[in-house]
Design brief:
By secondary structure, the chain is α/β, with parallel strands linked by helices. The structure holds uridine-diphosphate-N-acetylglucosamine and magnesium ion.
Length: about 450
């Protein structure tokens, strides 16, 4: 068995979020808050990771489908942090290593900090080590009481503290390392004789001290990291810090961000070097973007795979689309799921695509809707072309061969096909298949009535 396991407390509702969604599932930079804590615990080497769930337990559970290292322990009634950890006992039966205890609402905590905490705890053969920080404004946190020689004595909660204790500014982060033997031998001895009538996990500190066990505090320099998110103001602040880290990593790897403060890239996005991202772009959903691309102002991309040297112009929206190399899109284009654009395809302004494949070098430069279509290479789709793919009940496909020229203002009433190298004249409504190498034209012949206007005026 692994020597480090983690318990993440996530049973609380998060009342101050004022939300129908449990607090730990609110996303920050593309991941639910609890996933950031799980990622930090995993990366610090913890397995299994036990989530103590309560409010919306099923929703929290299903946030980690198929994860073999995640276990859930149900805390039906939230009776305090000590009671929450006790609920994890069965999931850790037989485990006698170090238990890392975290909260589900501290998304800024980094794995390096946890690794340092574990090393410090083990190097000193401690039974319990608490991660602390010194804050200018410690209000709301538990305060760390030390003896004159610096030895940790106990932790007192804000609501139970005397004025002298409230003046202490070293606080309990709520993150701990505890030896499993010590933890589970003592967790049931915690009482609830306090201001909140709750079972405080922090009471284990004074118990360890009483038993003469090594009980330590590790002070972190970066107090931001242990920030707990309680409301949406803190959530926005945490997301800002996470985005800053993501952007920093991308820029270090050769990506240019014109204004990183106003660039919204989620966890899991990959971008190649020499790609430029202009301000106000939103990129998420495990999107992969190649090298040498330009992503202009205000572009939104989610769940896409984009090759090298592509140019996505201002205001475009791309959802679950695949772009090969040197593709140009926009401005103001909308690529919907199932769009596949091969090399050198050009999609221009006010073009919407859905479930289409477009072959190499093909173009739809203006004001067009292409849905449920298979379009060959070197095809020109004229301005105002519409694939009429929906008959009110079912969707139908349009197939267009290589080297086809579709004139402006053409409607392709699906199911229909246009054979390779054909030309569809401007203004045509295509209702029957066009053979290869043909001209298709379906216009009402024009009539000019000379002098008609003059006669009308008489
Ligand atoms: C706790 C600490 C406090 C510390 C602070 C850091 C105790 C008694 N106090 O206080 O010293 O400074 O965290 O943020 O531990 N939870 C459960 N079940 C419960 C109660 C809580 O799962 O029955 C979870 C919550 O969902 C949350 C975490 O435990 O993720 C912390 O609980 P919270 O009520 O916020 O504790 P604090 O009062 O902030
Ligand atoms: Mg809290």
């Amino acid at each position: 068995m692994n020597t480090v396991a983690a318990v993440i407390l996530a049973a609380g509702k998060g009342t101050r979020m004022k939300s129908g969604l449990v607090k730990v599932l609110h996303p920050a930079a593309g991941l639910p808050m609890i996933s950031w804590a799980v990622a930090a615990a995993r990366s610090a080497g913890a397995a299994p990771v036990v989530l103590v769930v309560g409010h919306q337990a099923d929703a929290v559970r299903t946030a980690f489908p198929g994860a073999a290292d995640i276990r859930c322990a149900l805390q039906e009634e939230q009776r305090g942090t000590g009671h929450a950890v006790a609920c994890a006992r069965n999931e850790l039966a037989g485990f006698n290593g170090t238990v890392l205890i975290l909260c589900g609402d501290t998304p800024l905590l980094r794995a390096e900090t946890l690794r340092d905490l574990i090393d410090f705890h083990r190097d000193n053969a401690a039974a319990l080590t608490v991660l602390t920080a010194v804050l200018d404004h410690p209000h709301g946190y538990g305060r760390v009481l030390r003896a004159a020689d610096g030895q940790v004595l106990r932790i007192v909660e804000q609501k139970d503290a005397t004025p002298e204790e409230l003046a202490i500014n070293e606080i309990n982060s709520g993150i701990y390392c505890m030896e499993a033997g010590f933890l589970f031998a003592n967790i049931d001895s915690i009482g609830c004789d306090n201001a909140q009538q709750e079972f405080y996990l922090t009471d284990l500190v004074s118990l360890a001290v009483k038993q003469g066990r090594v009980c330590l505090a590790r002070r972190t320099e970066d107090a931001d990291e242990i920030m707990g998110v309680n409301d949406r103001i803190q959530l926005a602040e945490a997301a800002r810090v996470l985005r800053g880290r993501i952007n920093h990593g991308l820029m270090s790897a050769g990506v240019s961000l014109v204004d990183p403060e106003h660039t919204y890239i989620d966890h899991g996005v990959r971008i190649g070097s020499d790609t430029l991202v202009q301000p106000n772009c939103t990129i998420g959903g495990a999107t992969v973007i190649g090298s040498g691309c330009t992503i202009e102002n205000g572009v939104s991309i989610s769940g896409c795979t984009i090759g090298d040297d592509c140019h996505i112009k201002a205001g475009s929206v791309l959802e679950s689309a695949v772009l090969h190399d040197a593709v140009s899109v926009g401005p103001m284009a909308h690529l919907r799921p199932g769009t596949v654009l091969k090399d050198h395809v050009k999609i221009g302004n006010f073009v919407e695509t859905k479930k289409i494949t477009m072959g190499e070098g093909s173009k739809a430069s203006h004001l067009t809707y292409l849905g449920d279509a298979e379009i060959g290479g070197n095809v020109n789709i004229g301005c105002g072309t519409i694939t009429c793919n929906y008959d009110g009940v079912n969707k139908h496909r349009t197939v267009i061969g290589d080297d086809v020229f579709i004139g402006s203002d053409v409607q392709l009433v699906a199911p229909v096909s246009v054979g390779r190298n054909s030309l569809v004249a401007a203004g045509t409504t295509v209702t029957v298949d066009v053979p290869p190498d043909s001209l298709a034209i379906s216009r009402v012949p024009q009539v000019n009535k000379e002098g008609w206007r003059l006669k009308k005026k008489q």
